[in-house]
Amino acid sequence: MIKPLLIEIGVEELPAIPFLKELPTIEKQWLDILEKNALACAFEFYYTPRRLVLWHESFPTEQGEKEEEFFGAPLSVALKDGAPTPAALGFAKKCGVEFSEIATAMKDGKEVLYYKRTIAPQSSKPLLKEMIEQFIKGLNFGKSMRWGFLEESFIRPIRWFGCMLGDEHVPFSLFGVESTPFSYPHRTISYEPFAYMFAGDYFERLAERGVVLYPSKREEIILNAFKAIEAKEGVSIEIDAELLAEVVAITEYPTALIGSFEERFLRLPPEVIITSMKENQRYFPVFKEG
Prior knowledge:
Blueprint: E1 2-11, H1 16-36, E2 44-48, E3 51-60, E4 66-74, H2 75-78, E5 79-80, E6 83-84, H3 86-95, E7 103-107, E8 110-119, H4 128-138, E9 158-165, E10 168-169, E11 173-174, E12 177-178, E13 182-183, E14 194-195, H5 201-208, H6 215-233, E15 236-237, H7 241-249, H8 270-281, E16 286-287
Antiparallel strand pairs: 1-3, 1-9, 2-3, 4-8, 5-6, 7-8, 9-10, 11-12, 13-14, 15-16
Helix pairs in contact: 1-4, 1-7, 6-7
């Protein structure tokens, strides 16, 4: 059986530059965890400065059947006069079986003790807490911080967790935070949480509360706003791809405004003005002929 699965990790504002450096590996990190737990499936990863979201439209409610292989000592060590040695008996104990159930196989050109067992499928729901914890701890942003009385650390304090499997809330506690079927809107809308009843319900309710979850959509909003400003004001806006990615990463609902500064500053070299605007204010330079 499959169900939609939503995982939301709510954080204080993420610093864009270290986050964007880690971004290419984030999906790989979660994919590896899914595969390790025999739960491989398609998923999407979305982010804003205040939330990391993993969305699975079709998440397995049970693990796939897994096989585990164990290789032991060479037969020259495992047997003496046809009887199992302590090394052989120790291998059988490790595998949880009697020595009579141990087979042999070839490995690295030697015949060694061998055992293979099949692990029956298990419910995926109880695994989610540990999987999410592994995901968070596996992210490397270069620097991390502690908060409160916790031993754990992350790039920014974690303030809420949401985990919904179909219409079922998945309860757990990590980093001193209890998971709930609640999320938070854009701060200009409200500071109060809102509830969602099932996994797919989250997206509509979040959008109604001023959060553009999809990074590609935020970029589209910014670029369309630039085009409108260029047409209205008769100017051209210089789009820096790295700056655009950073602005996408630090906004939940971007809005473009055009500003100005005193004309006397134009006596400075253009590179000085542009560098200051980009690095200190995250502004895009605007040019007008004449």
